[in-house]
Design goal:
The complex is a heterodimer of chains A (475) and B (95). Chain A is α+β, with helices and mostly antiparallel strands and 475 residues long. Chain A contains 16 helices and 17 strands. In chain A, the strands form four sheets. In chain A, strands 3-7-8-11-1-12-13-14-15 form a nine-stranded mixed β-sheet. Chain A has a three-stranded antiparallel β-sheet with strand order 6-5-16, with no helix packed on it. Chain B has a domain of 39 residues. The two termini of chain B are 37 Å apart. Classes of the chains: A alpha+beta (475), B mainly alpha (95). Bound molecules: zinc ion.
């Protein structure tokens, strides 16, 4: 008897606004504890929230990119729960009228295309961080993150494997990055996923009882947690047991999930409309303004690179692996009018340097003007390929000035000055036998003479110029 | 609506509060009065009155995405029953 795994995802992404959702505190990551905190985001009585307009704009853009309907008359609701990471004892969220509904995302899981339905996207505020204090055995609370705007993107239970889940997360991350609504740094918690998972016998249509695994913060952890939880549920059911609907915590170090205390499982949030915020009205003009502001997304860029520049699918994928990378490529293509050469540089040498130095694509800061200058130099035959590679590395690692670096290291090729003519004359004079061979029709003699001339020029001769000078001299 | 001991115990649990018997008795009385007062609204004829989530007609009260000063940490922490030099302090939470 075979089993089918059914998965739905709730993805939380921190929005890249400058200030928090309901107050003017900064959203900057880190910072000494409780220094990005004010009476509003620390939940002091008597304060009132004011909605950050940029949060709504980012939410609408995200909804449009995921083909959602945009809710025209929306509001916020209070989700009540008492836990010290939430100083008001409620989270301002959206239950009854989320900003975006009924969207979808097309994915490609190992060559199999699939459409994942998105039930809704809602806006809410992030919670603070709890830190265990080993000195006193108590818990310390840092509210710097409290009130940072979040989008929660809720899929339908359309996934049947970890591979589909990961393909969706990759595509979603890419979409959010290219929209520039989130930096999606999983290591900083700005993209996190809750996994709802159940299993059923193949062919059955009713859903099994699901469990929820919260706050998985790496793609690897998500893949492992899914494999573990599916196997656990199947074991329980095959032994005649029942699945309890519960929240489970994934321990990535031990590779197991375990049930959280039943008290934490008591999910009775007693939602009600947030009276401190006015309703939200989004008219057609607003939606159309956001639609017009939508940037070209990664999959659109890939199609364009392949069609317009004749790039391979693999190179197009590498170039759109991160917004920083495609931005650099497009700037280089634009400045040099040599998109193929620009693509080769980014997918080849720059990727190699990123890997070697352990630099994340989001930290790629190479200057496009500098690199464009090097592309122009190599295409104009001013430097050879080895010098080009060396100079690219110097620009990448030391932020070197290309012209200074090339002249300081004597990388400029000799082409039309007297040195080439002098070298050719000397080689012809020193090698009468090869000259005679060539004139007698032995082509390989030319190769030998060419090599001698290049050696005399210290490897800095422009091969085309040297070859031409040599032929003129011999014929 | 009946505010009985079981409901008080449930709300106590949801709110992570620990109440004395005297407090529970007083709270049951208070809540019965409050809920009873709200129940008076049920007597109104609301047929034909559209449902709404807010008493005001205003919408879209926004602020611009501009960072302002946060509060002095020492001042904020002074409002808490317990705090260290940098953070609020609460009883140990389960992990
Ligand atoms: Zn604040």
């Amino acid at each position: 008897m075979s089993w089918e795994t059914v998965i739905g995802l709730e993805v939380h992404t921190e929005l890249a606004t400058k200030s928090k959702i309901f107050c003017a505190c900064t959203t900057a990551f880190g910072g000494s504890p409780n220094t990005h905190v004010c009476p509003v985001c620390s939940g002091m009585p008597g304060t009132l929230p004011r909605l950050n307009r940029q949060v709504v704009e980012f939410a609408i853009r995200t909804g449009l990119a995921l083909d959602c309907d945009i809710t025209r008359y929306g509001k916020f609701d209070r989700k009540n729960y008492v836990y010290p990471d939430l100083p008001k004892a409620y989270q301002v969220s959206q239950l009854y009228a989320p900003i975006c509904q009924n969207g979808h995302l097309d994915i490609d899981a190992g060559g199999v295309p699939k459409t994942i339905a998105i039930r809704e996207i809602h806006m809410e505020e992030d919670a603070g961080k709890l830190i265990h204090d080993p000195l006193t055995g108590s818990t310390l609370v840092d509210y710097n993150r409290c009130g940072v705007p979040l989008l929660e993107i809720v899929s339908q239970p359309d996934f049947r494997s970890a591979a589909e889940v990961l393909a969706y997360l990759e595509k979603l991350r890419e979409t959010l990055l290219f929209l520039e609504v989130s930096d999606c740094k999983m290591q900083e918690g700005s993209l996190r996923a809750d996994v709802n998972l159940s299993v059923r016998r193949t062919g059955e249509t009713a859903l099994g009882t699901r469990t929820e695994m919260k706050n998985l913060n790496s793609f690897r952890a998500i893949g492992r947690a899914i494999a573990y939880e599916a196997a656990r549920q199947i074991d329980v059911l095959e032994e005649g047991g029942v699945i309890t609907q519960e929240t489970r915590r994934w321990d990535d170090d031990k590779g197991v999930s375990y049930s959280m205390r039943s008290k934490e499982n008591a999910q009775d949030y007693r939602y009600f409309p947030e009276p401190d915020l006015l309703p939200l009205r989004v008219d057609d003009d607003w939606v159309e303004r956001e639609r017009a502001a939508l940037p070209e997304l990664a999959h659109q860029k890939r199609a364009r690179y392949i069609a317009d520049y004749g790039l391979s699918e693999k190179d197009a994928a590498t170039l759109t692996g991160h917004k920083r990378v495609s931005d650099l490529f497009e700037a280089l293509a634009d400045k040099t009018a040599a998109p193929r050469e620009a693509a080769n540089l980014v997918t080849g040498e720059l990727m190699r340097l990123l890997n070697r130095t352990g630099t994340l694509p989001e930290d790629l800061s190479a200057d496009s003007g500098t690199l464009a200058r090097l592309i122009t130099l190599v295409l104009d035959g001013k430097i050879n390929r080895n010098a080009y590679k060396e100079a690219v590395e110097a620009v990448f690692t030391e932020d070197a000035d290309p012209d200074e670096y090339i002249s300081a290291h004597g990388l400029l090729m000799l082409s039309d000055d007297g040195a080439v003519a002098e070298a050719v004359a000397a080689v012809v004079a020193d090698n009468p036998k090869s000259v005679a061979d060539y004139r007698a029709g032995k082509q390989q003699a030319l190769g030998f003479l060419m090599g001698q001339a290049m050696r005399r020029l210290g490897g800095k001769g422009n091969p085309a110029a040297v070859s031409q000078a040599l032929k003129e001299r011999l014929n | 609506m009946q505010i009985d001991g079981a409901l008080i115990a449930y709300l106590e649990d949801l709110s992570r509060l620990s109440l004395s018997d005297a407090e529970k008795t007083r709270l049951a009385g208070d809540l019965t009065a409050i809920v009873g007062y709200m129940a008076k609204l049920d007597e109104l004829d609301t047929a034909g009155v559209p449902e709404r989530s807010h008493p005001f007609d205003h919408t879209n009260a926004f602020r611009a995405d501009v960072v302002g000063d946060s509060f002095d940490r020492a001042l904020i922490l002074r409002n808490a029953p317990d705090a260290g030099d940098e953070a609020f302090r609460v009883p140990k939470t389960v992990e």
